[in-house]
Amino acid sequence: MLEKYRTRGTTASEIAAGVEAAVSEGRLPPGATLPPVRELAADAGVSPGTAAAAYRLLRERGVIETAGRRGTRVRPRPASTVREEIRIEVPPGVRDLSKGNPDPALLPPLGEALAAAARAHAERPALYGTGDDEELIALAGERMRADGIPAGPVAITSGTLDAVERVLAAHLRPGDAVAVEDPGWAALLDLAATLGLRTVPMRLDDEGPLPAELGRALRAGARAVVITARAQNPTGAALSSARAHALRELLAAYPEVLLIEDDHGAGFVDLPLHPLAGATRRWVLTRSTAKALGPDLRVAPITGDPVTLDRLRGRQRLAAGWVSHLLQRVVAHLWRTDAVDTAAVAASYARRRDGLVTALAARGIRAHGRSGLNVWVPVPDESTAITRLLALGWAAAPGARNRLGTPPALRLTVSTLGEHDIDPLADALTTAVHPPAPTGRYG
Question: Rounded distance, CA 391 to CA 399, Å?
Fold first, then answer.
């Protein structure tokens, strides 16, 4: 095959395992071209059918991709390269704004809710065959309808990524194209690679994906589209009414496309929801509670068309089976008792986020952060900016985790910032992005 790797194995599984190991060990780097099927077969001493089967296994695992006349090559970011591993070492004493966590002080105490869930469990223990918690399903449905989401069946999953993985796997096959935001959620980009899907990036502005980008992705054959409604990670974009209308019109012309809408911002964002749900025949909208109630509450209500929800439940039954009823009852209790002052939480995050964006603008630094926990700061070079910022006592996440084809940037999570932190951080970012010119003098 390549200079540093020779095909090994006599079965499709053995050949695929050898190639995957070579990719993981760096002997086949991302983008490396692999030989045609017949050449691979001759090199390994197997039949062309066996070689083709090996390539099929590798595509299904997200290790390689076939790009028409460009041939077969190792994916730019194969499944073995997790984007979250693109990280920096944060020295002691440096303020870490790279993690993406909510402010613990704004999360509700769980003691009363856990006690209530334990009492309910003692009275009505959840055993095999028990459905999702009826109260949580009813509360989730009411909240969704109040936000203009079309009425549909409701299910409970273990967070947004769990829901998205099951829906994509139920509808798509390896090699299918999925349109994703660029920059976008790192975990979703990794998931697409793991499932062997081909990502079609959509650029966005503060109001969400650009209509021209969605249109291009749909014309390119995207079979699924994943869009964040509010608090987009990493840019903070949120769909406006006008943008949502434009995107719905585009999607309506492709009714068989699967629409996945992520509204994890529900509960900590003060901007209204402008849902796309229902624009196509197959759609889902998921609402994780992680940022509003706590990351350890792995509960995400999801609604959608009946066929997609049935497929999701079927795959769920074959895997985890269900989401802990204790956790479901905890979330139901927190919602029923209004344990979180949503307006106050949203206002607190907005003050920190808007404060940093405004302070940077005053210093000539363009930044984005319309909603959510993060501020996205374009920079000339990520490595240089991160190194300079570390030296000044602050750590930011490299934008490379989130980017496909968009320019370099840093992501800063504002959840731990106090009012007194804004100006020092803005000064440090200004120095990191535009360091003062040398004076030309010694000493």
Answer: 19
Question: Which of 270, 323, 271 is CA-nearest to residue 136?
Answer: 323
d(C-alpha 60, C-alpha 24), whole Å: 16
The mean-pLDDT minimum among 19-33, 88-102, 108-122, 340-354 falls in 19-33
**b/e map 52-78, b = 16+ CB within 10 Å:** ebbbbbbbbbbbbbeeeeeebbbbebb
For residue 183, cis peptide bond before it (omega within 30 degrees of 0): yes
Structure confidence at residue 442 (pLDDT): 36
Contacts of 420 (CB under 8 A, 6+ apart): none
The pLDDT of 132-147, averaged and rounded, is 96
- Which of helix, strand or coil describes residue 384? helix
The DSSP string of 153-216 is -EEEESSHHHHHHHHHHHH--TT-EEEEEES--HHHHHHHHHTTPEEEEEEEETTEE-HHHHHH
CA dist., res. 280 & res. 181, Å (int): 19
Distance of CA 416 to the CA centre of its chain: 21
Separation of alpha carbons 413 and 231, rounded Å: 12
Crossing angle, helix 422-433 and helix 382-391, to 10 degrees? 130
E runs forming strands in 70-165: 72-74, 95-96, 154-157
> Is-contact 346 270, C-beta < 8 A?
yes
Q: Locate 370 and state its tokens.
A: 């319309």
- Are 19 and 64 spatial neighbours (Cβ–Cβ below 8 Å)? yes
Contact 285, 249 (CB under 8 A): no
pTM metric for this prediction: 0.83
What is the pLDDT, as a whole number, of residue 69?
67
Place of tokens 């197997």: 46
**Neighbouring C-alpha atoms within 13 Å toward the C-beta of 317:** 12
CA distance 277 to 261: 7
439 has pLDDT over 50? no
Cβ distance 300 to 324 under 8 Å?
Answer: no
